[in-house]
Here is the input.
Amino acid sequence: MRHLHAQRFADDFIFLESPKWRDGRLWVSDVFDHRVYSISPEGEREVVCQVPHRPSGLGFLPDGSLIIVSSKDKRLLRFHGGKTEEYADLSAHAAGDVNDFAVDELGRIYVGNFGYDYDAGETPRSTSLHRVDLDGSITEVAKGVEFPNGAVVIDAGRTLVVAETWVGRLTAFDLAADGTLSGSRVFADMGERQPDGICADAEGAVWVACFNTGEFVRVLEGGEVTDHFQFEGRGVSCTLGGFDGRQLFLSTYLGPSECIAAGDRRGALFTAKVDVPTSGF
Here is the structure.
């Protein structure tokens, strides 16, 4: 396992989720500051839009539209042409706050939710994944998922990998041409690490932000860790991008968890060059 080092890219945020690289910029949600940003390669930020009910997962449709999770009211928003509009209402489907998602090459969205009222301190329970199609239809595609978090499509669109945070594992599903999921299996047992946001590279390895340990690790199917970053605080999410696809962006919270909801601005982005470029999803 290689121990790597990253450089600070941008800071003075609260809690940054779901970074994505698109159109020569990094896009990211600041959950507790209720803003979505785009950031230039030089670290200069612009506010894309404000999301009162906590922005979380981000992703892009094939037409370039930005999809944003509005977590607390269980909706997906679409930002396009400078305007924000509702894209899908999951309030009748999601058992808890909507969290993160992955988009396949056809624009179908695979989205998870907490499954219970985390803020109220309810006992954790399993939940479902839902697929949102381009026509707006919503379909339950998997049950019994434990706090689904980051998600990514790998294997040229044939596999969906989801981080199940509280049980410390990455779970893979076979992704059929019609958008159905089957064949649930453990992609990687993370042990004591709690996987949060994830991304994948062109070799099918998954980069994992580990919330409780402050680590970011590159994991192969089966659980082997090949590369490792360590930070003081929390590992939140990550993405591959840059102009050659080899720039890894790492979202961290440089402090204890109790400072997050208090709004302490300890959220920071770091970046490092890695060997294997993005998978493209």
The mean pLDDT is 97. DSSP finds no helices and 25 strands in the chain.
